[in-house]
Amino acid sequence: MAISFQNERLRKRRMRILKQNAEAFCYLLPATLVLAVFWFLPVILSIIISFTNWKGLDTWTTVKWVGLTNYFNVLQDAEFHQTILNTFNYVIYSVPLTLLISLLAAMLLNSQIQGRSFFRTVYFLPFITTWVAISIVFRYFYDREFGLANYFLKQMGMPRLEWLSEPRGIWTMLFSTIGISIKKPILAGPSLAMFSIILTTIWRSIGYYMIIFLAGLQNIDKTYYEAAEIDGASAWHRFLHITVPLLSPVTFFILVTSMINSFKVFVPQLIMTPSGGPDNTTTTIVFHLYEKGFQGLWLMGHASAIAYILFVIILIITLIQNRILGRRVHYEV
Amino acid sequence: MPLPASIKHEKNIVFVSNIAIFLILVFGFRFLGWKGILVYAGFLALLLFTIINVWQRPRNIKDTITYQALLIGGFFMVLPFYWMFITSFKSYKEALAFPPTWWPTEFHWKNWVEAWNAPKGNIYGDPPVPLTFTRYFYVSIMVGIVTTCGSFTVSALAAYAFARMQFWGRGLFFYIIIAMMMIPGQVLLIPNYLTLAKLRWLDHYQALIIPWLASVFSIFLLRQFFITIPEDLWDAAQIDGAGRFRFLWQIVIPLSKPVIITAGIFDFLGNWNSLFWPLIVTTRPEMRTLMVGLQAFNQDAGSDFHLLMAASTFAVLPIVIMFFFLQRFFIQGIARTGLK
To answer: Min CA distance, B244 vs chain A (Å)?
Structure first.
């Protein structure tokens, strides 16, 4: 009697847990379905596709397994080397500049002045506007014949620049004015065309990172600054020994996310320099993927290999950042 | 703590004189070039001199420098918008004038109508078709609203399960979803394209909507908020005879309105502004979203910058208007992402 009673209780308990699980899975079902088909499955599928010679709208029956051929092809492609250099140039110049300017803007806005919210709105506005419209406006802005950029140069008595159709690197151009010529492509820096795009992306993303920095700055306890001021610390020392360490988690977050986003850049290049820019100097990795996969040849296998190489690059960079910088991040106790 | 009247008065003088000096920079540069910047520097030095020697308040020096830096930065932030807006009313000739004009000699209101109705070619090189921006707006708004509402429903259900329900594999499942946020979208692009082709969804609304119905970011954001809702409320609701779904619908969701609006804004914004995905999954011109349509128009119009600027302006306008009404949620949502 006692045993059957216990069994009965156990059975009821089991039923309750089962019911709970069933209910939870009903709630999760729609999300799981979409995520499984359009997020989880593709991750595996694209590895498989990258090992085949898939072209266009082939089906499984007509494609052949080609092993690592796609990866070898991509890695030996001189065009791809150029896109890697372009992308790294883009990331190396745009990320630190964006971070510095947005931190500066956040610190300026973190003071007690009139019109703070006005400035915040103005700086944030570019971020919500679409890349397509921005790129069109900046294509006009950088136009050789009637762009505002050349108008400013003219006002300052300087010669016109080609902006979006200038293949020479910015350092090559700068040093050639004082008679030094740079031969190595790595030292030349991004081409002026790419640098114009970098300036545009900086202009667009300052507001976004500024808001995050601002939230971080406002999170810092004011009493630290007051105490330091009483102890006679200068403004620079207060910045170095209070702001920098206490802002480091936010900075680290911004660094990682902006780095990842910058590696995936594509739209401004597509619109401002639709053919890949002068001497292909604005073709980024994703742009290259788009050209190979969705224009002309429809080389799906090849494009998937490019996507995975990009993924690995991003992963390695993120891991390195975590190893080197993650340790120095100062979390408040 | 209110400031004494005299200091407040002084602060206003600093504010106004800073704006005045900045305007001297803008107009000086416009008419004098380099010399204009010298004039500006002169006036700025004069202001600082006054502050140091007459008022003797270091606070005002700091404010002046902050204002000038913010105003110069703000000028460059606004300039492209101003330029876009003002060029959209210029004539073809005036838009291509050098040196450019800062104010149109004559307002061509018709530019907007012309840009709206201009025939658009195909991005893949087909001949132009008589499509207006009405169609593009219709597709974009339609897709945007359906995706945002659908994504809200799907994400809220999943987030609720993660936050308040016990089930097998909850932790593991949640980690998988978090890990998904790190995968670059480009990896998913090709298989997703092939899946949609297999389902014969290319060039249909399904292709633009269904893959975006579950937003990992929204699930995460909502789950983080749902956790903070006290368990007592659920007990009370149970006593009153409410089931889980009713509790979610009538108590949890109204309580988390700000987070839901934030998530909704980001869903809608991402959808409205996205170019890559709609560019790939649609080939028929009448299925283009606004962004793809704008890009197609950009390729056709070449140097018709007056029309391009008009089209850009009305493509940007809905989002800018939305931003002014919902600014608080934008700012809060972004500020939240950086802090834990």
So the answer is: 9
